[in-house]
Amino acid sequence: MATLIASLDWSNSPLGPIESWPQSLRTTVSICLASNFPINIIWGDGHNQIYNAGYRVVCGAVHPRAMGESYRVTWASAWPAIGEPFERALAGETSYLENQRMFLERNGYPEETFFTFSLSPIRDESGKVVGLFHPVTETTATMLSQRRTRALRDIADRAGRALVFDEACALLLTTLGQYGSDLSFALLYVTPPRRHGGAAARNVRDPGGRAARAPRPPALLRRGGRGLAARARGAQRTGGAGDGPDSPLRAGVRGPLSGAPGSLKRGRSRGWRRRARPWLRQWSRRRSARRDWIGRDCCAGRSRWTASLLTMMG
């Protein structure tokens, strides 16, 4: 950055050539360039900028044009957020803003950004404000991540309060509407359950052997909580529905559908047993033979020990 500053023709700017810069400006620029923290020096009546390599990242595509340019010109898109703090700093009052939201056009398009920064007056030997010291740190990634995480949390929290399916959908769309900056457009598709010709109709049967209707989400949600679990357990014990012919559990407890986790696990278990059956038979025969051999050996040893004991006693 020092090379870039030295290569610019400052004689056409309000600051004049580098050789004529006051010592206060030279010292401030030296401190700025030596720091790794993003710092921008705003100097003179033209509010010309001199910044370091850390601030170059903040500038984006406006670098290197922003070097020596007026602060008002470079950040005109952010002026609704930074204009008042800037004017207060020129009046001699330090301004500090944390996670300030602003829209910048630093890469050719409006961009939502967040910054934590301060604007502190720099005074000359007479006490006059001749410039501003402007350290900056960008917090855009952190703020967006927190806001989007909060959106997911609100969706889960509010939708979980719904008692019926339609209410859950309404709460979902209402919550999404509050986060228009992250999700400007959303459509919620609700597909009806397949009743004829689908996997559910072919695999789910009622106690009479007829294809049962797939359970509708609103009915299942109305029977939520402990009541639903109790009806499911009762239906599994009796092999039928939990409470009446119109119970939504009729289709849900008659065994898993094709491709369901339960059916997949059961199929894998049966396949493993079928493949391992010959090995299991062989292992069982060897185990039985070993038990017989151990039993005979123990009986023979017990008989010898008893005969020896009787001989000693006689």
Describe the structure.
The protein has 314 residues and is an alpha+beta fold. The chain has helices at 2-7, 23-34, 53-59, 71-74, 79-90, 140-159, 165-177, 199-203, 217-222, 226-238, 249-252, 261-313, and strands at 39-43, 48-51, 95-104, 111-123, 129-138. It has a 5-stranded antiparallel β-sheet with strand order 2-1-5-4-3, sandwiched between helices. Helix 6 (140-159) runs antiparallel to helix 7 (165-177). It is elongated. Mean pLDDT is 75; it is low at 196-209 and 214-268.
Task: Summarize the topology.
Layout: H1 2-7, H2 23-34, E1 39-43, E2 48-51, H3 53-59, H4 71-74, H5 79-90, E3 95-104, E4 111-123, E5 129-138, H6 140-159, H7 165-177, H8 199-203, H9 217-222, H10 226-238, H11 249-252, H12 261-313
Antiparallel strand pairs: 1-2, 1-5, 3-4, 4-5
Superfamily at the CATH H level of the domain at 2-138? Answer: PAS domain
CATH first level of the domain at 2-138: which class? Answer: Alpha Beta
CATH architecture of the domain at 2-138: 2-Layer Sandwich
> What's the story with the biggest beta sheet?
5 strands, antiparallel
> Portion of residues in helices?
40-55%
The low-confidence parts are 196-209, 214-268
**Major sheet strand order:** 2-1-5-4-3
The pLDDT mean sits at 75
Q: What is the H-and-E element order?
A: HHEEHHHEEEHHHHHHH
The total of helices stands at 12
Radius of gyration, in angstroms, nearest whole number:
40 Å
